[in-house]
Amino acid sequence: QKEVEQNSGPLSVPEGAIASLNCTYSDRVSQSFFWYRQYSGKSPELIMSIYSNGDKEDGRFTAQLNKASQYVSLLIRDSQPSDSATYLCAVNLALSGGYNKLIFGAGTRLAVHP
Amino acid sequence: KAGVTQTPRYLIKTRGQQVTLSCSPISGHRSVSWYQQTPGQGLQFLFEYFSETQRNKGNFPGRFSGRQFSNSRSEMNVSTLELGDSALYLCASSLGQEGQPQHFGDGTRLSIL
């Protein structure tokens, strides 16, 4: 089982719709979770971090965390073509030496069509 | 505030050579992590440095090494380059406490001929 799993996509949504991106992780004691956006040919850009169960909203983005189910998701409301990118889920695995060893999922490619 | 700066942006090397990549973190950030990104393997953790000490290490061979200087700048060295080392090498910095988010530089694209 991979430590962090994401559906590779592509996830295709129409402009203005809600895009829902999902991620599961294997380490039960992980405490820190991050979503990065990566445009083709560019480096990952941090868009959300979440540490507690529940929802965290930032503009059109909402991150949701459920530690009991080992599940973290990202919702993008009012999706725009400029949101088309690969979204990477990253987990700080507490059992892997601590601190800042981020384990990344393979990424979900999102395509927003006009 | 300046972001993470990586140099050079592009490198072309041949098999057997060695290469050194540089990373300057965001001002005030003491942790620098290095990652390798390839189409097949995705983003993989190489190592993390904090206060000039390697704090974490990924599953890469000893040909991959790094160091951090007192000003938090970091270098990564790859010796005896192989074709499979062709990748985007990314550096990320953070304040260093557990759970602090990491911010990436633009990366160095390394091509091995």
Could you walk me through the main structural features you see in this protein, from its secondary elements to its overall organization?
- The complex is a heterodimer of chains A (114) and B (113).
- With 114 residues, chain A is an all-beta fold.
- In chain A, 0% of the residues lie in helices and 54% in strands.
- Chain A is built from no helices and 11 strands.
- In chain A, the strands form 2 sheets. In chain A, strands 2, 4, 5, 9, 10 and 11 form a 6-stranded mixed β-sheet that branches.
- In chain A, a hairpin with a 6-residue loop joins strand 4 and strand 5 (45-50).
- The radius of gyration of chain A is 14 Å and the shape is globular.
- The N and C termini of chain A lie far apart (37 Å).
- By secondary structure, chain B is mostly beta strands.
- Chain B has strands at 5-7, 10-13, 19-24, 31-38, 42-50, 53-57, 64-68, 74-78, 87-94, 103-104, 108-112.
- In chain B, strands 2, 4, 5, 6, 9, 10 and 11 form a 7-stranded mixed β-sheet that branches. A 4-stranded antiparallel β-sheet of chain B has the order 1-3-8-7, with no helix packed on it.
- The model of chain B has no long low-confidence stretch (mean pLDDT 95).
- At the A-B interface, strand 4, strand 5 and strand 10 of A face strand 4, strand 5, strand 6, strand 9 and strand 10 of B.
